[in-house]
Amino acid sequence: MSRILVLGGTGYAGSAIVAEATARGHQVTALSRSLPDAPIPNVTYVQGDATDEAMLSSAIEGSDVVVAALAPRGPLAGTWRDVHRTITRLADAAGVRLYIVGGHSSLRPAPGAERFVADLSNVPAEIHDEIRAGAAFVIEDLPATPATLDWVFVSPALRFGAHVPGERLGRYRLGDDVAVAPEDGGAISAPDYALGLIDLIEKGDHHRVHVNLAH
Ligand SMILES: NC(=O)c1ccc[n+]([C@@H]2O[C@H](COP(=O)([O-])OP(=O)(O)OC[C@H]3O[C@@H](n4cnc5c(N)ncnc54)[C@H](OP(=O)(O)O)[C@@H]3O)[C@@H](O)[C@H]2O)c1
Q1: Any idea where the domains of the chain sit in the sequence?
Q2: Does the CB atom of residue 189 touch ligand 1 within 6 A?
Q3: Statement: the pTM of the whole predicted model exceeds 0.85
Q4: Which of 91, 149, 178, 189 could bridge across to 145 with cysteines, CB 3.0–4.6 Å?
């Protein structure tokens, strides 16, 4: 059993991760600015703003594992990358393992090929900034963290998110930084993404790497 803190634990990805971790007997704390309408039994819900470093620090210090499931849009548009740099610093200082829910565009279509983020011409301009923030975090910031920080950046397939919820199939495929389904981007539902993420946490066999999950 691990003490798992899920930042953004009431969101689309975060709530599925909280549900999966709790069902598997972990002690789960979900942090967000507001409380959920339908809380999951046995989960500790904490209200706080991830831009508040003192609050973040005390939440992280009481954990074994932190999962960051904060979206780089809405309230964190423009600050997501800075907030995550702070999270890496606090997790490293506390000796806590860090798993980040990432985006699909930071993946590559083939080994050694440029990442999808290099060409966003088919992506609506209004989401370019959030895509670039998430990609820069895994391309530039995470590799530059001290070697003592144990991180895993977990990208989903292209079709992932509240607009394409999908169903629980009870399976997933795990890849490295090359997309598991490069031909059309693939899909993954939140429950199956959570299954893969909690498997990664429980196995603890990936360190300082970028991986991806797809059906
Ligand atoms: N296909 C893709 O590549 C794809 C698609 C979707 C998502 N994603 C990735 O998945 C991750 C999570 O996205 P999501 O769609 O699950 O997000 P979401 O549903 O919008 O959830 C965001 C969560 O963060 C919380 N939050 C927002 N601002 C906060 C703050 N300042 N302090 C504390 N909590 C805050 C929200 O609760 P409150 O508002 O109550 O604070 C909520 O719990 C992101 O990294 C995103 O890039 C990738």
Answers
A1: 3-214
A2: no
A3: yes
A4: 149
